[in-house]
Design brief:
The complex is a heterodimer of chains A (116) and B (107). Chain A has 116 residues and is an all-beta fold. In chain A, 0% of the residues lie in helices and 52% in strands. Chain B is globular and about 35 Å long. Chain B is mainly beta and 107 residues long. In chain B, the strands form two sheets. In chain B, strands 2, 4, 5, 6, 9, 10 and 11 form a seven-stranded mixed sheet that branches. The chains are: A mainly beta (116), B mainly beta (107). The interface between A and B is medium-sized, with 23 and 26 residues.
């Protein structure tokens, strides 16, 4: 059973960089797309982007220019960096293996608050 | 971007009711759609993939249908644990996009 776990700071100052890591256990990262999704408090889900295990990425246009997703298959981890954050980036951040096939796994989520 | 319009945004129903939630895509997405259930404080859980395939372990009262631009999620007989928020997600083209959600409440 694949499990994902987000980690990182729960509080980030405005204008700084949000950095999160997702650790994957119970399975290989090969052949899959690894995603980040976020959910502001009380609101709906927003897809941030994904990275393929070979390193190709795709990002939401609304965040492109501020977001970077990277992968380290040797550590079974992938990461999210979001620059120049504002209060609007306050959200629950989820990492996920989510695509068209039968496999679909999500982390429990991590709440990141942007505040001084 | 493909817009996913989900309706209704909220729904009140009773245990035992049959309910249907709809997602409409702004352009054709074949069957590249999944349905998710989310309970407060929890990660979304996928119920249906490829528009009509039941995720392993999900009760058979959940079903999905549709292709192209119109999709439905049906719960044949509501159970108390089904009261939650439901989302569709298209993965036909990037960026992937979610519907805005349907909150299913107890009547």
């Amino acid at each position: 059973q694949v499990q994902l776990q987000e980690s990182g700071p729960g509080l980030v100052k405005p204008s700084e960089t949000l950095s999160l890591t997702c650790t994957v256990s119970g399975g290989s990262m090969s052949g899959s797309y690894w995603s980040w999704i976020r959910q502001p408090p009380g609101k709906g889900l927003e897809w941030i982007g994904y990275i393929h295990y070979i390193g190709s990425t795709n990002y939401s246009p609304s965040l492109e220019g501020r977001v970077t997703i990277s992968i380290d298959t040797s550590k079974n981890q992938f990461s999210l960096r979001l620059n120049s954050v504002t209060a609007a980036d306050t959200a629950m951040y989820f990492c996920a293996l989510s695509g068209g096939g039968p496999s679909d796994y999500w982390g429990q989520g991590i709440l990141v608050t942007v505040s001084s | 971007d493909i817009q996913m319009t989900q309706s209704p945004s909220s729904l009140s129903a009773s245990v035992g009711d049959r309910v249907t939630i709809t997602c409409r895509a702004s352009q054709g997405i074949s069957n590249d759609l999944g349905w998710y259930q989310q309970k407060p404080g929890k990660a979304p859980k996928r119920l249906i993939y490829a528009a009509s395939n039941l995720q392993s372990g999900v009760p058979s009262r959940f079903s999905g249908s549709g292709s192209g631009t119109e999709f439905t999620l049906t719960i044949s007989s509501l159970q108390p644990e089904d009261f939650a928020t439901y989302y569709c997600l298209q993965h036909n083209s990037n960026p992937r996009t979610f519907g805005q959600g349907t909150k299913l409440e107890i009547q």
